[in-house]
Amino acid sequence: MDPENKVFLLLLLLFHVLLVAAQTSTQDFTALSSLSEFWENKPPSWVGADPCGSGWEGIHCTNSRVTSIILSSMNIGGRLSGDIQSLSELVTLELSYNKDMTGTIPDEIGNLTKLQTLILVGCGFSGSIPDSIGSLKQLSFLALNLNQFTGNIPRTLGNLSSIDWLDLADNQIEGTIPVSDDQGPGLDMLLTAQHFHLGNNKLIGEIPAQLFSSNMKLKHLLLDNNQLNGSIPGTLGVVTSLEVVRLDRNQISGEVPSNISDLINLSELYLSNNKLTGSLPDLTGLNDLTYVDLSNNTFNSAGIPSWASSLPLLTTLKLENTGVEGQIPVSIFNQSNIESVEMRNNQLNGTLDIGNDYSSHLDLIDLENNKITDFDQKNSNIDITVKLEGNNICLETGATSESYCQDSESTVSYSTPANSCTPLVCSSDQVSSPNCKCAFPYTGVLSSRALGFSNLGNTTYYTLIEQSLMTTFQSQNLPVDSVSLSNPFRNSTTDYFQLDLSIFPSQNDRFNRTGVSSIAFVLSNQIYVPPEFFTPYFFNGNNYENYAGESSSKKSHTGIIVGAVVAVVAFLVLSILAGIYAIRQKKRAKKAKDFNPFANWEENKNSGSAPKLKGARWFSFEELKKYSSNFSESNTIGSGGYGKVYQGVLPSGELVAIKRAAKESMQGAVEFKTEIELLSRVHHKNLVGLVGFCFDKGEQMLVYEYIPNGTVMDSLSGKSGIRMDWMRRLKVAAGAARGLAYLHELADPPIIHRDIKSSNILLDDHLNAKVSDFGLSKLLDSDTGHITTQVKGTMGYLDPEYYMTQQLTEKSDVYSFGVLMMELVTGRRPIEQGKFIVREVVRAMDKSKELYNLQAILDSAITKQNTPKGLEKFVDLALKCVKEHAAERPAMAEVVKEIENIMELAGLNPISESATTSATYEDASGRHPYGDDDFAYTGVFPTVKLEPH
Where do the TM regions start and end (predicted)? Predict the structure, then answer.
């Protein structure tokens, strides 16, 4: 062996040893490094090339793979990038209480198929919750509350068969509550879930009866503070596991279903501030009830129900403005746990008598604005707040000087007392702990969404919360010395109860980063189990500015140094290896190029063609730069996530569209080559033709024939100025169908387009339809009839069977084409304002009436002149294409044949290859439809990709 090879092998061995010494897989290190590029204020311990071995804070590993990221309350800013998908072994992702973590959740998160816990509480995330989260089949804990999310609840969450905790509360989420139907799953599929926390959003519509079933394990149903209407479904009563029900602060009407008394485990019931009618619900036998609020509804006038005096655990009874009348039975006040009775703004009369045996816990009786005439005070020393302002006793008897006739708001204050010591006077930044030590506490707000008590002045409750917090922190071996609660407050808008929480360190006077993050995780992940009267709770942590150093131990310092040394040595070894490799390659083949998947294509300088291509030309970068006037902005005719599209002119005078990939969206070279080979094999008048490509100087570009009239979507929306009458829409449908049928049946092997939609159907200068954008296309496996692949496509057009099974067939294109047909007859996008076009058509259809009773949703452009002939058959065909099961859908050849029959019925000759020229479609002003200077060519845009696993 020559000396050069010996040195090469020796260095290779050394590099192998260094890689073995590292405890982190290269893939995960690269992913974490890419993630952190988008972050500000990342942990200082994040240095070196070995996160698992050198103690990167918040990173936990198993067998060299990163399995959890826990960075709660780390003051991190920035956004979560799609690079997260590369951490393929990730089980837990927790980034809560990083207020400056903003932007959207990337779709790529759906590729983390092993993820079980996703917690992003109290950050600044916005935008829609991605549908791809529905692909996380092992997810059991999903908490996205306290952010700024908008859009609808993704129906794909119904796929989370392992979910236990679903918290989307305190956002700005809109739309209806999704349940499963022929378009996909819904929340009714989540039979193992114990928590639906959806309060304090902007949800609308009725509470679906289908949402509930006797198979559910649901404990907490929180739908408060939304805009829900309709009645309470009777199916709610079959979920006997329910413990907390909050439907308050909506617009719910009708009677409360009688079977609500079947909820034998119910402890808190909130139905206030709605439009409920009928009789007050019968709650007899619900012996676990502690808190009942039926206030501010329009129930029938009646006496106070008997159950109000017979619930053994009841602490709070609120019947304000409910129509109750008559005298209050003394037995209400005799219940052993009663704390508060609030019945203001009713028709109560007679004498208020609380008796001699009233509960020792009784704190408040609020009966303002009734008709009570007397107050029997058998015991003048009672320590109870009684409010009778606005009653006859105050208005007519001259008792206005009595305390119970004066409007007074009671204030409650509490702060954890010192633990048998004298509080210290600390510096301005420090606080004296309950154990009288000056320190920097970690702080936040601890809130309950369904508080089981109402006497906020009873310090026993706060003591129990403090004790349970300390018990949890100690059991988790966290460095906590003591906790302090203060400022109890009941929010009148949400009816949530909150406390300021301060947690003090046991080591020195401050926490390190790991300590703060671990404490926050215990609270965000619901590891802390509070007393029953405080559930369900949530925590919102504040930034911590006083970390003790930047590492947790000497060991981590050593790890960081070792990691840095390893990284430097590895870099040097790689540099030497690269140098030797370059010398060896130069000696062996001076004319050899860097690895290039196109190397086996012998470039022909005359024709520019390649042996494996049929007519596609190989362009150099300099050529395309010249043809597009140096990629000038004036030549830009479109842009998107893939990059930009430029108009170019070849030396022959032929117009082309040059699709130039942005650096961050380029495919791998092999994938790029595969796409070119695929495109070069298909040639049909209803498919956009590939003129050529460029793989040069680090660029990836595709050169298409120039299609001047934009997309069908532009024409339907009026953007292009082209009037789309019924005849033209039939021709568009026929052309697109023929292009698809060619891909499915004449291409060898068959090709599945995978992203058929109106923005991917272009119109040429004669308004012929051409299918474009093959970036997601796949070759069909002729043996199995399908391919198993990650789900990609566009929501609204996506085949639900493909989404559920990940098995792609040509029938997936048929489904998308059916949606396109619906779009052609209605002029509406597939999903508009939360309404799905297919469902809207099905709901409105009545085959016994003219035009199937669809006049209200048909595009007026096809109905204002003449009745569109064949429309009913067109709709029938579209409905066949969007059948739930692929086997029931027709093949594209059948679709083509049926559309041609409809064209004949409408008076068109489907065999004719000539299409009406654009001149026929000038608008009323005489402006030529292709003369719009603002028109942007979008036919070769990249698609929006949905990428769940």
Answer: 560-583
